[in-house]
Design brief:
heterodimer; A: 486 residues; alpha+beta; 2 domains; five-stranded mixed beta sheet; four-stranded antiparallel beta sheet; 16 helices; 16 strands; B: mainly alpha
Chain lengths: 486, 306
Amino acid sequence: MENMLKIYNCGVNDFKNVPCLDILKFRQTIIEQVNSGLRIATLFAMPADKLVCVLADDTNGSLYLLSSKVSKSYPSLTPACPQAHLFEREIAEQFSIIPQGHPWLKPVRFPDSSLIGITDFFKVAGSEIHEVAVGPVHAGIIESGHFRFQCNGENVFHLEISLGYQHRGIEKAIRSGEQKRLIHYMETLAGDTTIGHSLAYSQVMESLSNCYVPARANIIRAIALELERLANHTGDLGALAGDVGYLPTSSFCGRIRGDFLNMTAVLCGNRFGRGLVSPGGVNYDIDNSNISDLKQRIKAAFKDVSNAVNLLWETPSVLDRFDDTGVLTQKDCIDLGVVGVPAKACGLERDARFNFASGAYQFSQIPISTWDTGDVFARAYIRWLEIQKSVNFIENELENLPDGQTLSNPSALAANKIAVSLVEGWRGEICHTAITGNNGQLLHYKIVDPSFHNWPAIAIALRNQQISDFPLCNKSFNLSYCGHDL
Amino acid sequence: MDNISIRIIQPILALILSPLLFGIINRTKAFFAGRKGQPLFQTYFDLWKLVHKGVVYSKTTGWIFRAGPIINLSAILLITLFIPLGHSKAVIFFDGDIFLVIYLFALIRFFTIIAALDTGSSFEGMGASREAQFSALTEPALFLALAAIACGTGKLSLSEILVSITSKFWLSHISIILFVAATLIIVLLTENARIPVDDPNTHLELTMIHEVMVLDSSGPDFAFIVFASALKLWVFTALFAGVLIPDIGFGFWPNLGICVLAVLCVSVVVGIIESCIARLKLLFVPHFIFIATVFAVLAMVFVLRK
């Protein structure tokens, strides 16, 4: 571990303390550490051709930072460490640093805006192979992304996912932009993860400015994060039911998701939690009438969601669709560095709330929910387990809300620091990394949405599956397009 | 009761009432889902809207794509003339018209499939291949079931078969009737793209069977397709009701009333089925259809044993 700087979640350190290794040593260290059980939380390049990597150790809650100087190219990590795949493609896209020997080197997005949608796809040859192209415009009201299937009849040999249609240049805007706007970029980075990303951002800013967050604010943040999880998990379970044509759960969950969103509106007036979290705490306090209102609502909504979701587990035709569909093996999961619901559905204990506890989670743990079959059923069931635990958590926290301030004033950012914050959003681990320059300005800001880790997992899970099961499988991951494209 | 004006009522009822079946199914599903649901007459509104719209044809399509909806609607209209309601004679009947009806269905399928292939879309191609596979399996089941009931009644035209299903025949041949009815309900669900075989409400083109084959159709063409599928549903439910419910012996009008009521009830049952179970994995759809074939074989066994 001598080649790496160890910090904890929401930790901060001088950027110069991050070991700057020779590129071969850098590569070798990452590969060795990943083989010994760590995973890449983020890997990015920054101006002046520097590579920075954050490795996460789920067993002891530490984060390890290391960096390296590169010139035009370096030997690729991906062949030995598949979870670097998208990160290296992104590095090549953004900084023209070529990972030599990368098996499928092409941009993650469409850097040349005149060539959007034009790219090479992996092709399977043969007279019995047919190619199916889906998107970027879809039949439902979803985001845009392109899926290219190589099929033999109904069987999928290979799926390639091509994203980038939602690219808005957020990271670039953060570096050049005014600091007041940042929180709004974060809130709309992935619209369904407003709390998750604004919380990760706020934690980074608080670390960099050494700002103390009041206990009451920490708990309101955690409640909001869990409400976001409840709303989205409920919506997902409904959508999964809808995809197999099982009507009752589908309709009821759609309504109950709205009930959870409305609870977030009780906290801050916005159903998605916009304007709630801010560096230093939360912008809105709740009074006793809000608390009793929330308690009532959550009790009623939990009763409804239990009835609706339990129908799924009691209906054999639904279980038949969920079982053994889109299986992701635990080995693939580890190799690809999958996080969040799909990782927990493979029996991996990856949950930043527990492993890298910050804020209110340091004092009230939520046990990690896991299942070991790795199929659509497991991913659905993890959502149900998490719903129960989140409801329990919110009820307990509302009971014991400490008094006091909800917002402290953050001071200016410290100069020449690096800070990392991990938040377990409802999809999985969100990682924000910030590096400040000489005047405390943001030199570099790197966002990793859980979707960035997980998109390749869908392609793997779909191999040798029926193409007609793709929508179900995709929904069981329910990844973000805009969170990936940034 | 053989006069032609009464016989002509049957297809006219089909034309008027068939779009209502979709409304009933949708309202039933909405009820089970705790929703209010779309208006009962929504399909009529849709048809009205569609016939007033223009048509968009893709440049890759040829005359087959344009002819498909017309041929399909004509064929299903012809079929309705053979379908008796209320145990009387249909407008047209002759010995062996069963075969004509089944092959008219095959004609519809053929033109739906090649019209879908004509678009050159990979989605429509997938839908077409699924349709071809599943219909190849339902056809023997339907044939066997109708053959069983034809053997049982000793008649060879649909009209005469259904006229022969009196309450006396019904009681003495109950096992045959039930097996044939069971075959017919499975064939009905499969042929009309209902759950558990297909999901008419889904927007997921990769999972569709029937709906995906008509994705490129628009305007009056699509109205023809929607109306043809409403009529198809009507024909199958009428056939099912005609086999399952015997002639009660009070003459044409009560029988007709009961039959229409039964058709509407069958749509409620279809709605309930769709509310209670999920769709099958596409791989298991053939297994589901084999159940229909097994029922049809059992019906045949019972007929031959008698």
